[in-house]
């Protein structure tokens, strides 16, 4: 049957169009594409040329205007300089003549439209034209143009600024005026108003095009000239607001497209003025600049559309003429479709491609019919081939009947072809009941499922319409076999299924081998370790899934590549060389490798590499079995780091404790020193009582600070108890003094009950015992509003050189509940929250006390009832000191008693004091000089070595601070001990540390002894006498004024930056306050520069030390605002400059405020104070002061002025007058030369 042409499927993307239409459309599209590309390229070329031309023209215009402004600015500047050359210096002495001179220059006002001004060398306005009385006599020295002119001594064009009175934007051009000897006497200034119609003001009115305009700006982004006058001198173009402006400020000159801060797209050109670096910018809106280009774009598009329409029409007409023969050929082909006999050939008389196609078609039809006959012959041949094939095969027709059952299938099943041919039972040899086989399903998919018949089945990989299956058959011809089935349809010429062929293959042996191999493969695939197999060269042939899970590489990414793919650079080449030597020798290698994953991450593997050998013993493969041990190694590393961090934290904590001890004890040293100095003055009985209580409170304050440090040491397990002889009576007496001070006005009676058998002297840690008793007594007094607080001491046992005592503190206070007692000794815990609010405290004291008692071998017990009071008791064991220790202790107590005579103990000694804190220097010097000693001061270890090395220096002992800048006390002591001349020189440490370790370091460095800050003068004197034999000291008369009370002068009621009441409460001496303030000012005049230099050098340690020192000293002096500013700055030093700028400025302000107060009170009113008696210093002392002054003068150190104040009264009047002039002028170089001459006159060696 003939089929319509339209029923044939069409593969074209335009199936419903005729060939003519298709060719027309394709041709039109091709032409359209070519023309579009040509038009687009033409437009791009025109656009580029137009934009480049526009940019060049605008750039040339801006450059021309910039050059013109440059020339006019330069001409204006030269005109002013020429005019300045006519100004006589005498005019600066006569303002009237100067005013007249300027009025005689009317032509200049055409250039300088805002007037001319004449300024003298101090910046004072002498005259102006036009006359402006309001500014005549005013001072302009603060103006930048004046300062710059004075600095560079040349004419200057200023940056624009607003005038003082009228607030108009102006610029000023200056011309310096000199005398004949080139001495600057003044300057002539010409001013231009940027809003007037001068050559700069006219720039704002200039236009190019319809909307193009100019504006002028400086490097600070200030608009100098702009059409919008409201924007002049405003910071109106922020960074990032205009890309071209940002580029111009960075040095760009030229033209570019940009968007201004108002969001308008512009073509901008910029040019930098040569005279002063201002930037001239010309802007044209892109809409205006590119208007011709947009019109050209419209013309090109219109021409393109017209050309395309013409091309489409012409192509369609031509194709209709050319395709007529092809239509006739198509109709012939449709007419012969389906004929059995060979048809007549088509007749087309044409020599073109259509004629050639018709001839080829006629030959094809003839060949098809010839091949049809051959196909019938081939069908008979294939049937014969199947019958004789070695592959078991059968064929079903469309009715499911067996039409072929070959000989190989007969042998496999044991069933002959005679029994099977014509039947519909291909299942019979294989199954006991009727079931569909694969061939049945191909013919009819609805026959059922075969899941139960085959172990595996599905679509054939070779034929999309075929099926395959395989499975075990237990009874096949008496044997158990595994068969593989393949079924495929057989089609006729029309593509219809006419039969199904199914082949069977016996693969029992191969299946058994596969199952064995599969078991092994499953084991390798699922084992939780990595398995890799390589050839002898290391090329990977297999990896299991765990390899992918560990490394991230898929098998296809690594198979065929060398195993070094996962190697990292962690191991040295020798490591892998030894590995290969081992496995190539046929031995197993075991070890750990650090390899690299696909993402670059390193990981650790525990590996075992085994060589596999062939039949001849040659190595054929290497099998690597590896386990990821990264987590184990990471855990080991974390453990190691944690251990190291814990050790580092312990070290840091110890260092912190040492630093805290030093920083806290240093100001306490000054406080206790001042109390001692006050004690040496004449006081009333009440004042002495107050002083004793203040001194005891200061000492116990030190002990409270020690409590805090002790808690940290107890936590770290580093607290050790000392064992030294002490007087129990002294401990209890001092305890009662402090306790009585805490009672204040409470109606509480303090009782001390000490049994007669309790020994007076014991050996142990008296400080810790006092600390525990103080905590218990303080708590009892705090929680007792009225009643009795009693401390009882009883002897429990004595013998074998030890005494066991029981201490009991009983009160009649508020008492505690059992629940409160359970948490009583926990750190930071008290009875309850309300107690904390009412009575204060941190709850730390009892926790420390309990742990200290445990270290003493006892335990604190408590008995209490709410509202009935409490009783705390503990037992401690102490050693009994020997008779010699008791006598020495009694003598020591006698020497340390208040009022003990030690004034002459240091007479004749020369002590080198090494201390970096100026206030502590002051206190120590005063204390020692009151005892008759002469003191030489060094600010650090390096200066101490210089003092010892000075010719003629006679130092009896060195008092050495431990923590100092430049060189600390430990290093300085080591240097001293390295010099044989100083091997026997006593070096005594002054340490503020509470750690035994630092004291051990002092001994290891070579120090003979140590005294603890705060300094107790009696202990210090006793220590000095212990190490300086009296035979070494010269017999000297007492220094005048030693031990006398200083005279107090009047002070103002209020001083800026100083809490005067607090300062005097601490020092109790206005004269001493004056002296310390002057000393503080001299020491810290360059403090801000030193801090700035340290920050610039990233030396944060030095910066923190400077700020920390001034914080402590300011607090001691009562400068609380300065101390608070230093405290706020200290944590900000490590941050960026912007964050700490405000704190630095605040510190500077507070420091200047305190300096002003120091200058205000001076050193006292000489008219109201008795003249100081001259100090009779010998030549050695005079030489010491001269050498110190010479050293400071060479270093340009302002501390030289303080030394000069000490030296001045000791010099003859004529020598003092010679030195005073250079020092007051701060000419240290001249002063150093004069000092050399004075020393030569006095026969003093420098």
UniProtKB/TrEMBL annotation:
Where the record annotates domain Histidine kinase, the positions are: 659-880
Its source organism is Geomonas silvestris
Give GO terms: molecular function aspect only: ATP binding; phosphorelay sensor kinase activity
Residue ranges that the Swiss-Prot or TrEMBL entry lists as coiled coil: 625-652
Where is the protein situated, by its record's location annotation? Cell membrane
Which keywords label this protein?
Answer: ATP-binding, Cell membrane, Coiled coil, Kinase, Membrane, Nucleotide-binding, Phosphoprotein, Transferase, Transmembrane, Transmembrane helix, Two-component regulatory system
Which EC main class describes this enzyme? Answer: transferase
Q: Which residues form the Response regulatory domain?
A: 910-1028
Tell me which InterPro entries the record gives: CheY-like_superfamily, dCache_1, HAMP_dom, HATPase_C_sf, HATPase_dom, His_kinase_dom, HisK_dim/P_dom, HisK_dim/P_sf
Catalyzed reaction equations: ATP + protein L-histidine = ADP + protein N-phospho-L-histidine
Q: Where is the HPt domain?
A: 1069-1161
Any matching Pfam family? Hpt
Bilayer topology term: Multi-pass membrane protein
> What domain of life is recorded for the organism?
Bacteria
Q: Which GO terms describe its cellular component?
A: plasma membrane
Protein name in the entry = Sensory/regulatory protein RpfC
Segments passing through the bilayer = 23-46, 298-319
